[in-house]
Amino acid sequence: MIRRCEEKDFEDIHSIVNDAARRYRGVIPADCWREPYMPRSELRREITAGVLFWGWEEEGALLGVMGIQAVHDVTLIRHAYTRIEHQGRGIGARLLNHLCGQADPPILVGTWAAADWAIRFYEKHGFRRVPGPAKDVLLRKYWSIPERQVETSVVLSNTPVAELVG
């Protein structure tokens, strides 16, 4: 079942993010990899900045999480992760559909350019890659990430974004 995560879920969210992020090791640039991938302090900053996490729960255990964040005139899907042993079961799809049903467009997603599986997942669900320099404009406008991450990331949108980069 899908439910809104609460403060009591903080350690589970942290665990899920770092478990699932192991797929990125060796795929994203080595200078962007950290261990743990998301420290507790960063997760706390994300929540404080307005990322609302939702989770997929089975038998009392969180198996996947996905965040949503309103930033200016868009909605961002943030930190979408499913425990590795539960990936491929549709948990991410159900969470994404749930969050998209709550959000006003445009909805943007940022992910690593080398994470082909993540890009395919979002494209399968109606998102399209933002072309050319527009993706850099969007990453700088709506995310607070290092310049190196801007260089090595993509943005996907569920609607045309010309008015956002103008």
Structure description:
- This protein is α+β, with helices and mostly antiparallel strands.
- The protein contains seven helices and seven strands; from the N terminus they run βααβββαβαβααβα.
- 37% of the residues lie in helices and 26% in strands.
- A seven-stranded mixed β-sheet has the order 1-2-3-4-5-7-6, with helices on both faces.
- The mean pLDDT is 96.
- The chain is globular, with a radius of gyration of 15 Å.
- The protein has one domain: Aminopeptidase (3-Layer(aba) Sandwich).
Question: What's a concise summary of this model?
Answer:
This protein is of the alpha+beta class and 166 residues long. The chain is built from 7 helices and 7 strands, in the order E-H-H-E-E-E-H-E-H-E-H-H-E-H.
